[in-house]
């Protein structure tokens, strides 16, 4: 063995690529290089420092494969990758194919790394670290502990940097720590498992999980393969699993007795009540478009008389997240579209900060017509009363039924009442998940108009941050892979 290459723990991919480029440019055969991870090699010749005369042709597909395989924990991946590069440079493309023994091995490694990154994105649970509110606009700080199977923190962390760009956070793993401070991502050595404080999001995760847990649909094997047991110990919600499984059979029976497929006993009764109150109940819409067309003609309460038009929801028709406001405002009534006025601006701005793309969600209102009092040339917003919300709940229920979101975010008291039937003050419920009247959990937060009306700038800032935090939580709860 003539040469030895030892790769660093951070920046491993770039270091491997640089070393492989040097080695191939000098046409050093694979059996003359010993590759190792950091600190794994002793006295041996190091590679030349200057690029040699040979210019290798490296297809993009190989670079992509190497870009995954490099994060696998198997030490032999380094020499296997160089063997593959050597063969490719000798006009043998087989190492890219599953049909080749080496190609198959590398592809399996890449797959395992991809799965591990996916699990990290789904199972990292941040906890909030107290922020110094004395500093104006201090960024909120979060920390998480995670134990990946491979060395995937480095390739996996950019996802969190994009999603939580407005916050400072750190993810500690047994091998490396990722830090995101003031928008800059960096990596440091492994730390001990941090002593993370309990916070509200932990309870929120647990409540959310308990709410979406439907014992009738449970497939234990599928559940274990989606959320392998080794991740359970760091996931707050999984502490509930043994209890929930114990109760599963009894819950299924209760659901059967209620004659409903919904997980919440009583949900069927609610929807029947509203269906029966519908003037044209015989014509139950069969699609979201049919529901929208029917809503355009709605005359279930007096609000249709003065409003310009019904304002229906919009967004992604299979959205995992539905956001529900109170009712259209003056501008929405004229435009026929939700959240295009000042409150919409606050909401859309907070969504942008939470990295929540509006095209990923379904945006709608509890009440579909604008309620107002004329004052001169102006139309002053009036909140809908309970009965108006209850009449309109029919349409909201249809939207939920067709879109089937995994989570609904209620903006303000009217939406929270429409979705949960609970009319208690919002101050004690904000940031918490409640069971919905329709299938699925409801996260309650402030309405953007309430924030706009707050007279004190500090209160306004705090409420804005709380709305942001709830949107981030909603994005996290409905992230892919959960
Ligand atoms: N407020 C809402 O609740 N919904 C809108 O669409 C606009 C303002």
Summary, kept brief:
This protein has 18 helices and 15 strands.
Describe the protein's architecture and organization.
The protein has about 475 residues and is of the alpha/beta class. It folds into four domains: about 5-120, no CATH class; about 140-195, no CATH class; about 200-250, no CATH class; about 260-480, Uracil-DNA glycosylase-like domain (Uracil-DNA Glycosylase, subunit E, 3-Layer(aba) Sandwich). Helices cover about 45% and strands about 15% of the residues. It has 18 helices and 15 strands. The protein has helices at about 10-25, 60-70, 75-90, 100-125, 155-165, 200-210, 220-225, 230, 240-255, 265-275, 290-295, 305, 330-335, 340-355, 385-405, 410-420, 450-455, 455-475; strands at about 5, 35, 125-130, 140-145, 170, 175-180, 185-190, 315, 320-325, 360-365, 370-375, 380, 405-410, 435, 440-445. A six-stranded mixed beta sheet has the order 8-10-9-13-15-14, sandwiched between helices. Strands 3-4-5-6-7 form a five-stranded mixed beta sheet. Helix 5 links the parallel strand 4 (about 140-145) and strand 5 (about 170). Helix 2 crosses helix 4 and helix 11 runs antiparallel to helix 15. The longest helix is centred in the N-terminal third of the chain and has 23 residues, at about 100-125. The two termini are about 50 Å apart.
The assigned CATH architecture of the largest domain is 3-Layer(aba) Sandwich
Spatial arrangement of strands, main beta sheet? 8-10-9-13-15-14
Count of individual helical segments = 18
Number of domains: 4
Bound molecules: uracil
Q: Name the shape in a single word.
A: elongated
